[in-house]
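User: Could you check the structure of this?
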Amino acid sequence: MNKFTGTSFAYSGGMGLIAGIVAALFMGIVELGTQLLWQVIPHAMGDPVIYPLIICSLGGIAIGFFVEHVGKYPQMLSDTSGALRKTGRIEYRKGQLLFNILGAMLVLLFGASVSPEAALIIIVGGVVTLFCDRFKVSLPQRKDLLEFAIGTVLGVIFTAPLFGVGSAIEKDDLKTITESKLKRYVLFIFATFTGFIGYLITYGLFPNREQVFAIQRMATDLSWQGILLLIPTIILGAFFGKFFLWMQEQATRINQRIRRPLPLTITAGVLLGILGMLSPYFLFSGEHSLLSFTRQAETMSLLIILLIAFGKVAITMVCLACNWRGGTIFPMIFSSVAVAMALIKVFPYSAGLLVAIFTASACAVIMKRPFATACLFLFLFPVQLFLWIWLAGFLANLLVHKVTIGGGGPTLKKSVNQKMQKKNTTPEVSRSRRSRHK
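Assistant: Sure, the predicted structure tokens are below.
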């Protein structure tokens, strides 16, 4: 879909509008349910201290039964990426769209430390696929429309209009930008624009909307101490990003070995509830609490901030490992900002710049997209820091790549292991052959 025709704009704008409306309906319903479970009911009970443990434990039981009897829902984009590339569709038939919606709502309503973007991508992708099937849209057009819809979803829930198209540009080979690609980017931006209109109008119908994805504004002046701390901050951010990825890999491995989901979903619920009793920052994805945390961090001790930061990472990975399924972008941002707040506790120079640099470095390494990361943070941090954020993300990714290559890298290690296995098994095979010959 790289031609400027009325049909191409109609399809692109229509898909963006659908994506925005579906995202707003989903987020609005989840917030209404969250207010009921976490504000109305506990207030009626006298706000018992043990309430997070009770509700999260009940959530663990509900999610466990759901996973055992229905399946692992909501699906992750990684689960369907192969089929998406080949067929240009995200499946919605045989109840899969409904299962994704119910599974995602269960996890989010009971306070899981995961974000909604993973579930929303699958849900919106299923709706768009349904639309394309009804109107018999060709495969190339369907793939473009799905990409536009996914980018629009990411843009609206993170209030980052350029995040989706920025990610698409970064995936393309910038050395071979053609006229057709530029036209496709224009259609992508148009889809995002209509998506924001649909999202804002629909989301405005829901009461008690909370401010999300905001951070306390800090001074962005550049002192000589801040200049000296720029490179160390980028390095620390890159290593935190690698730590987050390593934890995510461990969570995935544990999840793949699960045979009985119910005991582990209950365990995750109990742990989440205990941590929720200690601090509300461990509950949910962190999108609503990021602003209040950055304000309160000024009066917190260094140890408490670090415990919240790394505890957030840990409970997010426990949720993922134990089938409390969801995305990681909001917890990633929250924990990165928390570590950055701890950093400026020790080095209180150019606070706003250092927080932005550290967060950008960590998140760019996790998402492996420096430019998309900069687009994501366009309205989270002051606009004048955009180039600093982009540069920090680029340097952090470059550092991680160099360290991986210098350390042998996973591919090299795998190759060495295969050679060692071949070397170790060859003599036994030869002896076996000789014995049979005799």
